Amino acid sequence: MIDVDLFRALTVCWLLVAIAAFVALRFRTAAYGRYVGASQAPRIPARVGWMAMESVSLLLFAGFFLASDRVRQPAPLLLFGLWTLHYVQRSYLYPLRARMHQRQMPISVVGLAIGFNVVNASLNGYWLFHLGPPLGPEWLRDPRLVIGALLFVSGMYINVSSDAQLRALRTAGDSGYRVPPAVGLFRWVSCPNYLGEIVEWCGWALATWSLAGLSFAVWTVCNLAPRALAHHRWYRQQFADYPARRRALIPFVL
């Protein structure tokens, strides 16, 4: 069994890896989606890859929860429910709805994502359900949990609704890209779906009030902020009429 000090040291190391990933992604865009290019690296259908890499988080976190003695405690059950809500959407509903039937994903990207999800789900699941302090019934009234859960649900709504707006831009069999209309948060940013996911996991960090939760929020920012900037730059390069006042990720700021 890992003690608290070792766990915290490992989590700090994980945070440092996130910062290194952020620096790397500022110079090199991850090779999936529109950035796969003409590489001859081995690939699999994007839908299969997406479901494989995201479902790891759902299943592993559930394993930590079900193996704990906290399964009937209200606060851990709520946190498990939030995580499950996100990853059922992310692992199954999103790839089944997305128009990715003709797309391929590099196996290397799937492997890296699985590795990340194994570490991330393990850190969060082990801390919340085994190593961290018990979250008694009084935690349900704690402002950190209440505000954090509200942020989580709000961020997920932004993420899912923005993905739906992007999906609506394409007809059946269409795999091209178009300028998102000025609807919802697309009025102000190119990637409200990423903004929503960042809000989600910042809410998670607050709700769990843990270093593990914070590490997930930091990783989300370090992964999605460079990708949002890359998307924004790509839109401007591809579409001469792209809205000049639209920012990449944060309205009026970034």
Keywords:
254 residues; 2 strands; single chain
Q: How would you describe this structure to a colleague?
A:
The structure is a single chain. With 254 residues, this protein is mainly α. The chain has one domain. It contains 7 helices and 2 strands, in the order αβααβαααα. It has a two-stranded antiparallel sheet. α2 (46-66) runs antiparallel to α3, α2 (46-66) runs parallel beside α4 (107-131) and α5 (143-167) packs antiparallel against α6 (192-208). The longest helix has 28 residues, at 211-238. The radius of gyration is 19 Å and the shape is globular.
Side by side, the strands of the main sheet go: 1-2
Measured between the Cα atoms of the first and last residue, the distance is: 43 Å
> Would you tell me the overall average pLDDT?
90
Q: How many β strands by DSSP?
A: 2
Number of domains: 1
Q: How does the major sheet shape up? A: 2 strands, antiparallel
What class would the helix/strand composition place it in?
Answer: mainly alpha
| Poorly predicted sequence stretches spanning 5 or more consecutive residues | none
> What's the helical proportion of residues?
55-70%
The string of secondary-structure elements, in order, is HEHHEHHHH
The portion of residues forming beta strands comes to: under 5%
Radius of gyration: 19 Å
Tally of individual helices: 7
Anisotropy-based shape: globular
